[in-house]
Amino acid sequence: MAALPSPDDASATVMRPHVRRATASDLDAVAAVLAPYVARTAVTFDEEPPTDADWRGRLAEADARGLPFLVAELDGEVVGYAYAAPWRPKAAYRHTVEDTIYLAPAAQGRGVGTRLLSALLDACTVAGVRQVIAVVADDPAAAGSVPLHRRLGFEVTGVLRDVGRKHGRDVSTMLMQRTLH
Ligand SMILES: CC(C)(COP(=O)(O)OP(=O)(O)OC[C@H]1O[C@@H](n2cnc3c(N)ncnc32)[C@H](O)[C@@H]1OP(=O)(O)O)[C@@H](O)C(=O)NCCC(=O)NCCS
Asked: Edge to edge, what strands does the sheet with 77-86 contain?
């Protein structure tokens, strides 16, 4: 299985992305950001790329619930996205969400993820969210996820052992959690 390209080594430069709410016209670019992670890694447990209808549904659900679905642009191009979705469907979980964040490999390691996740947390606070959970797969392509979430105040709250199986191997996940005020 081919690895994803590493972030460019000119990466010490911190980039200042334009972060804004996603619209339906961003969804092709959003899908393109995720696609290589689906095909080549276990960062996501999707084994097939979400369909156009899946993406429209995710955006519509975020909009309907008042939860953020954001994109990050560099030079007018969408290079990443992040959204919040209900953690579990049962009613008493109403103030708890799971965050999802993906950047194109070339945009990694330059502070874009920090700005995008910060904006997501700010928007979650405004939306009345109390707890945000990140589910981080044990995969080399997710190496930036633990430091990113730690940097933004998440703590490790658990490990789920071998809950996924992808590309012929069992994959564990780490749960990280941040309380919003
Ligand atoms: C995780 C991700 C969103 C982080 O965004 P980013 O823009 O690369 O992160 P930043 O440049 O803002 O850096 C945030 C922290 O992560 C660290 N980091 C970023 N990429 C890293 C990597 N490949 N390996 C190790 N650490 C990394 C940075 O050094 C920084 O740590 P610090 O606060 O200790 O200095 C991005 O790397 C990505 O899209 N990864 C693949 C998908 C993924 O793992 N999504 C999360 C699923 S839970």
From this structure: 18-21, 69-74, 77-86, 96-103, 131-137, 169-179, 155-166
Q: Whose CA is nearest to atom 19 of ligand 1?
A: 144
Q: Which domains does the chain have, with CATH numbers?
A: 17-179 (3.40.630.30)
Q: What pLDDT shows up at residue 2?
A: 52
Nearest Cα to 153, choosing from 122, 110, 107, 112? 122
pTM above 0.90, yes or no: yes
Give the pairing of strands 169-179 and 155-166: antiparallel
Residue from 11, 81, 100, 108 to probe ligand 1 pocket by mutation (most atoms less than 8 Å from CB): 108
Q: 144 and 110 in contact (C-beta within 8 Å)?
A: no
Q: At what angle do helices 27-40 and 52-65 cross, to 10 degrees?
A: 120
173 vs 9, residue with greater confidence: 173
**In the chain, what is the straight-line distance between the N-terminal and C-terminal CA atoms, in Å?**
43
From the list 57, 39, 36, 59, the residue with the least C-alpha distance to 48 is 39
The token pair at 167 is 């590309």
Task: Report the chain's C-alpha Rg in angstroms.
Answer: 16
